[in-house]
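Sequence, please.
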């Protein structure tokens, strides 16, 4: 469930304590919505929004607080943007997980889209993926997908022939 954070979180980080009822908390830092366009000014934020919505939107999903970091002009002044100084958020989108008052996981930008990186942030979701991933048909499809990605992406980027990568594939 996507939630609006308490107002005091918008001016300084909360002092999470073990006694806090929000001892296991997920925060999502997004670029603010541009009033002229009606969308977030950051293309990476727009790219992960559907994934974030899929992971958190709905009553049956884990709760997460969405915090908007300001306009593009405000974001470009790191010394004056308290999300960058107080929260140590260097890029948006950023997903943080706090457990027992301590930060235990952080995903930045495209890491949010990688299922293999979601484990520390959403252990329940990734355990469901692991169960699905253990089926033989899924392993075959995933293996072929990885192989195809490596052939299409790796070779052209490095300008090398497939023979040079025969030990990798």
């Amino acid at each position: 469930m996507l939630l609006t954070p308490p107002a005091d979180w918008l001016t300084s980080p909360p002092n999470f304590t073990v006694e806090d009822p929000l001892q296991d908390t997920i925060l999502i830092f997004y670029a603010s919505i541009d009033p002229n366009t009606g969308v977030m000014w950051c293309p990476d934020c727009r790219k992960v929004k559907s994934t974030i919505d899929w992971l958190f939107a709905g009553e049956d999903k884990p709760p997460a607080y969405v915090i908007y970091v300001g306009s593009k002009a405000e974001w470009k002044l790191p010394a004056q943007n308290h999300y960058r100084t107080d929260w140590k958020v260097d890029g948006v989108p950023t997903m943080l997980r706090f457990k027992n008052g301590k930060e235990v996981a952080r995903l930045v930008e495209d890491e949010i889209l990688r299922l293999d990186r979601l484990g520390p942030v959403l252990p329940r979701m990734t355990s469901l993926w692991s169960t699905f991933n253990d089926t033989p048909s899924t392993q075959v499809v995933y293996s072929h997908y990885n192989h195809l990605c490596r052939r299409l992406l790796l070779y052209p980027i490095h300008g090398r022939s497939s023979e040079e990568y025969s030990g990798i594939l």
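The helical segments are 43-56, 72-75, 82-85, 123-133, 136-158.
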